[in-house]
Known about the structure:
A: MetI-like fold, B: globular
Amino acid sequence: xxxxxxxxxxxxxxxxxxxxxxxxxxxxxxxxxxxxxxxxxxxxxxxxxxxxxxxxxxxxxxxxxxxxxxxxxxxxxxxxxxxxxxxxxxxxxxxxxxxxxxxxxxxxxxxxxxxxxxxxxxxxxxxxxxxxxxxxxxxxxxxxxxxxxxxxxxxxxxxxxxxxxxxxxxxxxxxxxxxxxxxxxxxxxxxxxxxxxxxxxxxxxxxxxxxxxxxxxxxxxxxxxxxxxxxxxxxxxxxxxxxxxxxxxx
Amino acid sequence: xxxxxxxxxxxxxxxxxxxxxxxxxxxxxxxxxxxxxxxxxxxxxxxxxxxxxxxxxxxxxxxxxxxxxxxxxxxxxxxxxxxxxxxxxxxxxxxxxxxxxxxxxxxxxxxxxxxxxxxxxxxxxxxxxxxxxxxxxxxxxxxxxxxxxxxxxxxxxxxxxxxxxxxxxxxxxxxxxxxxxxxxxxxxxxxxxxxxxxxxxxxxxxxxxxxxxxxxxxxxxxxxxxxxxxxxxxxxxxxxxxxxxxxxxxxxxxxxxxx
Lengths: 250, 259
């Protein structure tokens, strides 16, 4: 009953929003400025083949490579910073500074460096997702309590034991939080990368439709991008729930 | 049986903490010597900051004496990690591990295979009144049950000497009493040597053979009293006149330090 209510409220709000959108768009009646919800849906259906094969696949590729690199580099840097105070002092400020860079402004430079290849888009995605994943993992590793560490030491645990049996499980919930932020940002990063220079992908497709004054065609790939972000978030949420079953007992 | 050599000895042990970035020292122990015999039950009683926990840190090897030596089973033991079982005040069970895996942790750290560890731990869980909890998480268990798991974990360290740091202080009075009785049973059954920190004079009298009284740090000579009670004991024994008198004496001595 409660569960049903949990979904009912946001569904109602969302439905109200869609109706408002539909009515406003019909009143304005200029689909190249504001296409109606039904027009966007029809366009998605018409373009389904191009959207869901070539372009979705291209974007997914960027998201997968960008996120994969981000996770690998993020974990690596977080572990290294946790291991050495000197490394933390050297890299943490740079990490924070990297977030003050207006990524959209710097992205065209990536196109200069990497051309229209996939790597210019991966670089933008990486810049978006690296920070939340690294900081979350690092904070998680730092949150290991001294009491637990000393208890394991009294049992004769080595540094390696303490890392794998204490630090990693302690950091895992933090890591998942970082990944949840990271996956949604990765879709945004990939789309922006494609916007600025690509020959395929949902972001590229949206831009191409804009040059053709096809309002519904601009919105169609954006809806797919948004659904992609939600799907990735839900997948990570499910993985998290599975890995952190014990948290239900807390 | 090596009943002749004490389970644990301090030989002129001195210890101090460095404070203020090493500019000053805060002395805790000053040439303290003591012998604890195998299968003895010792409680340590004293106000906070009197060095009780530091003594445990020294015995577990988390700290090293500045001078003197600590012996285990009659021979000097400079590396003591993994050689004494320690049960902290909070249960400190790992919340992501099941009860079985929590109890098996010391075995796992000694390199015992997972299957072998489980084979050893499962019957112990039953003996500790924890049957049926093996696949539960610590969050599902009551405070008393978690303390049992924590005690089982220290027993499974395989050490003859167990250090218990106020293990029952967070439990309610009734649970606490039954845990005390249970602990005495387990101690007699398993032939361990136990050092037990407490603030509670009744608890000390009920449990121990000898009581060490820690005054204010630094400690140079350990005050100790022997509890004049035979075993097995019941909680009623605490009302015997000799014990009641000893209790009053202990309270007076502890109170003097507070004034």
